Automatic annotation (TrEMBL):
Alphabetically ordered keywords of this record: Cell membrane, Membrane, Transmembrane, Transmembrane helix
Entry GO CC: plasma membrane
Protein name: Lipopolysaccharide assembly protein A domain-containing protein
InterPro entries per record: LapA_dom
Transmembrane segments: 45-68
Pfam families: LapA_dom (PF06305)
Length: 108
């Protein structure tokens, strides 16, 4: 298991290193048009990194509603399990009524 973690970190490090090399090789300025007739010159890496950040923020907002829904469901299920456990404990500790023994014999 530990070997898999080490291999995973090595692969992540290699990917990060490759992305950094690509970033440093692409420092030329490109025109970024953000509104009609409005543009600016920015390094390519700034635009790519900015796009990544904007995408990550939108992704977080998209997942936030699902997170709240799952938290609510988790709390509801946890309360249901606690209630069930409490009822089971009460049923176990409650005295059991013994059936009445009858000495009358039934004849046909």
């Amino acid at each position: 298991m530990k070997l898999m973690k080490i291999i995973s970190w090595i692969i992540k490090g290699v990917i990060l290193l490759l992305l950094l090399i690509v970033a440093f090789l692409n420092t030329q300025n490109v025109q970024f048009t953000y509104l009609p007739e409005q543009s600016t010159q920015l390094p390519l890496i700034v635009i790519v990194f900015g796009g990544f950040v904007v995408g990550a923020v939108f992704g977080l907002f998209a997942m936030f509603g699902r997170l709240l829904r799952l938290r609510s469901e988790n709390n509801r299920l946890r309360n249901e399990v606690q209630k069930s456990a409490r009822l089971t404990t009460e049923a176990i500790s409650a005295p059991v009524a013994k059936p009445a023994v009858s000495n009358n014999k039934v004849t046909k």
